[in-house]
Amino acid sequence: MSTSLDLLTGLPYNLYNSFIWSFLSSFTGETAMGHLPASKARQGFADTINRAAYGKERVVVRRRGKDVAAVVPIADLRLLEDLEDRIDLADARAALAETKKKGAKSLEVILKDLGL
Q1: Contact at 8 Å (CB) between 75 and 53?
Q2: Interior CA angle at 30 toward 60 and 33, to 5°?
Q3: What is the per-residue pLDDT for 35?
């Protein structure tokens, strides 16, 4: 079963992540993304939160030179959650369509096929 959204979900994580952030920035109008070592984020946690909350800036926290977390404006998070919900809905609709087309097996048949 595949959907048109498989093009996104089948991408390597970094490419998928880049697409999502680009997509989000097209709606929010914000493209700023700062990088901050974890030690500095810890020392200035309130400032890091304020950069996201009031400055609409995405702050990527790094540990040992690797991105480990992000502090993002709540609008970005809500939009990302909405996108994930839409992907899940498209996948569910595709699964239902496939079931209607090919038919479904009962749980008893599946368990018997698995030897359970």
Answers
A1: no
A2: 20
A3: 83
Strand partners, 33: 58
At which residue do the structure tokens 């914000």 appear? 30
Q: Which helix (H) or strand (E) holds 102?
A: helix 74-102
* Interatomic CA distance for residues 33 and 111, integer angstroms: 50
Q: What is the DSSP string of 12-74?
A: -HHHHHHHHHHHHHHHH----EEEEEHHHHHHTHHHHHHHHHTT--EEEEEETTEEEEEE--H
Mean pLDDT by 10 residues, the chain (116 residues): 47 53 55 76 88 90 91 93 94 92 88 92
The span from the CA of 87 to the CA of 80, in Å, is: 11
pTM: 0.56
